[in-house]
Amino acid sequence: MVEAVLIDLFSLPPNLQNNIQGLLRNTLETIEKCSSIPAPFVYVMCHQRQGSERNGEEESLFPALSDFHSLKKRLEVVHSLTTAAALYTIKQRLDEKDLSIIKVILPTLRKDLMKVYVDHLFTAVYQFEFEDLQVASDGENLQIAEPRSEGQALPTQDVALIRSEIQMYLESLPSLKGELTILRSSLIPDDIFLHGFTTRTGGISYIPTLSSCNLFSSSKRRDPQVVVKENLRRLANAAGFNLEAFHRVKIDHANAVCVMGKMEPDSYDGIVTNQKGVTIAAPGADCIPVLFADPVRKACGAAHSGWKGTLLGVSMATVNAMVSAYGCNVKDILVVLGPSVGPCCYKLPHESAEEFHRIDPTCVRQFDSASPYIDIRRATRILLESGGILPENIQDDSVTDQNQNITFCTACHPDRFYSHFRDGNNFGTQIGFISIKD
């Protein structure tokens, strides 16, 4: 069942501009007649002319809206300078109400354009259907026709213009939840490496569980890739790395490692490089973003270590890749564990807890319970030390003699970090990143 209807009157053909009230009235009549009870939410998208007063334009549509009492509280007119701005505003309204099934009624000539906007500003969480707004030659009779057959793809230059419009609009938006904040470790020498762990502040993501500097998009979440890309652009500007040379692991919750410059695996949870100016990164919400730095051989690495990756030894696999690819000495490698869910909050079924108990009993709390508390950080430290990493070269929450703590519990700090464990499936993601300075 359609949850919302979007009426696109943003760019009507010239012969229809003078009849906008008639178009709107007839369209709303059709919606009102065809809709089940309660009526869907209706959003009318209109063009705001440069320099015009928004209220004046909206008032010009009031006569067409006044008779639709069943829709009145569910009807909103959105005036914007660009299609990107109007559609993004409507997306915010849809997300506030958790609406996902949308019908778009629009002029035939706008359909292919609108589909490009939708593809960029929405994810697979949303379902769209399109209906043509057709007008008889006398300009008086309106009918909503069945969707027409698919036309040819838009010219490449038109798609590029739409992308540019969306990017410019997103770049103009203010940062949410304060300034962008980056946590840095005193263990990694900043004269050789650029590195940091992000928090959730300083981006433009507005959905509560994703707000505000979410750095991961998927088909199951409501943050589109263009928003994540804008958050990442702001991070790159604040941190000082080149976004064109940014590489993030392709998560598989396993222990494969990508060596930059060699054939890239289809998926991997660790990545290493000795190329200057190349920034590598690993995400984390509850999983650990782990950074590796060898100041002697000037090489670095990043790994994503969840409970599965921890058990599979992804951190030592990343260390071993640095040793084999760049001749690093394991005793020179520095390792920093970033923000992740702590043993205060994280539980696993007893069967999985047994595997951590075999690493070391201190990795499990309340072992006899059905869902013991798990310390994936301690397990990671123990496995790293067993592989030859010096204890003093590892920074996590067990280290108290560093200048600052980096490994906060993400679940315990909702104002600073994202957490899948705490927030559910529509959760945000922070990252750990590192590069070798030029």
From TrEMBL:
The answer, when asked if Lyase is one of the entry's keywords, is no
**UniProt keywords, alphabetically:** Acetylation, Cytoplasm, Endoplasmic reticulum, Hydrolase, Immunity, Inflammatory response, Innate immunity, Metal-binding, Nucleus, Peroxisome, Phosphoprotein, Transferase, Zinc
User: What does the UniProt entry say about where the protein is found?
Assistant: Cytoplasm; Endoplasmic reticulum; Nucleus; Peroxisome
GO biological process terms, semicolon-separated: inflammatory response; innate immune response; regulation of defense response
Catalytic activity of the protein: S-methyl-5'-thioadenosine + phosphate = 5-(methylsulfanyl)-alpha-D-ribose 1-phosphate + adenine; guanosine + phosphate = alpha-D-ribose 1-phosphate + guanine; adenosine + phosphate = alpha-D-ribose 1-phosphate + adenine; inosine + phosphate = alpha-D-ribose 1-phosphate + hypoxanthine
What the entry lists under Gene3D superfamilies is as follows: CNF1/YfiH-like putative cysteine hydrolases
Q: Which molecular function GO terms apply here?
A: copper ion binding; hydrolase activity; S-methyl-5-thioadenosine phosphorylase activity
Membrane spanning segments where? none
Q: What is its EC number?
A: 2.4.2.1, 2.4.2.28, 3.5.4.4
Task: Tell me the leader sequence span.
Answer: none
- Provide the primary localization: cytoplasm
An example GO CC term for this entry is: endoplasmic reticulum
Q: Which SUPFAM superfamilies match?
A: CNF1/YfiH-like putative cysteine hydrolases (SSF64438)
Pfam families this protein is in? Cu-oxidase_4
Coiled-coil residue spans: none
Share what the entry says about its subunit structure, partners included: Interacts with FASN. Interacts with SDHA. Interacts with ATF6, EIF2AK3 and ERN1.
Indicate the family of this protein: Belongs to the purine nucleoside phosphorylase YfiH/LACC1 family.
Q: What is this protein called?
A: Purine nucleoside phosphorylase LACC1
Per the UniProt record, the source organism is Stercorarius parasiticus (Parasitic jaeger)
